[in-house]
């Protein structure tokens, strides 16, 4: 059983994943308290309002985090991949999930009981400091997303989303950067709180401007500079990819 746990929790090739924030010994501490779980596409790891007493290390697969408004509108908060840790911030007051985690494809998880993590944090000061830095990074990611959504209109929000997707799922190709995650225009619309029709128009404008092109359903970014100009991000080359991610 212990060997199976270790195999399930092995590090992945995600340079922006949780393992990058810890030494191998410290990551091994997390591995020791994980137990395996599998989830099929379309199912939810948890739903909004469920008790938040576990963390989930993604061994393989992808998970979509989404929030539903009172009028039924869905917003996509993030799409996590192998190597990411799915964790609801603990504020000591609320113990409920504030969003839904929907499985996009067959996913293998390492589940961590929050009470077991608390023991590690209490006993290991350096581990606790690194975990706090990782939590602070999550806060900065969320803060930067709100900035892009609120300050530069829907075109800026879409440009920012495409840049973040390229950092999280981009693959270099002769033309530029191909986003390996295939998303519908409706899903892109859910990232920025607009309609599919609006995204259709904005993508067409970006294609006409030579910023992107579509190939077999995948978005290829031809000019990051043009996208950066739309979302007013002149410091983008210096902005850490750990923050500028989806």
From TrEMBL:
Gene3D superfamilies: Jelly Rolls, Winged helix-like DNA-binding domain superfamily/Winged helix DNA-binding domain. GO terms for cellular component: cytosol. PROSITE patterns: CNMP_BINDING_3, HTH_CRP_1, HTH_CRP_2. GO terms for molecular function: DNA binding; DNA-binding transcription factor activity. Pfam families: cNMP_binding, HTH_Crp_2. Residues 152-225 form the HTH crp-type domain. The keyword Transcription applies. It comes from the Bacteria. Residues 18-130 form the Cyclic nucleotide-binding domain. InterPro entries: cNMP-bd_dom, cNMP-bd_dom_sf, Env_Response_Regulators, HTH_CRP, RmlC-like_jellyroll, Tscrpt_reg_HTH_Crp-type_CS, WH-like_DNA-bd_sf, WH_DNA-bd_sf. This is Crp/Fnr family transcriptional regulator. It comes from Cohnella faecalis. The lineage of its organism: Bacteria, Bacillati, Bacillota, Bacilli, Bacillales.
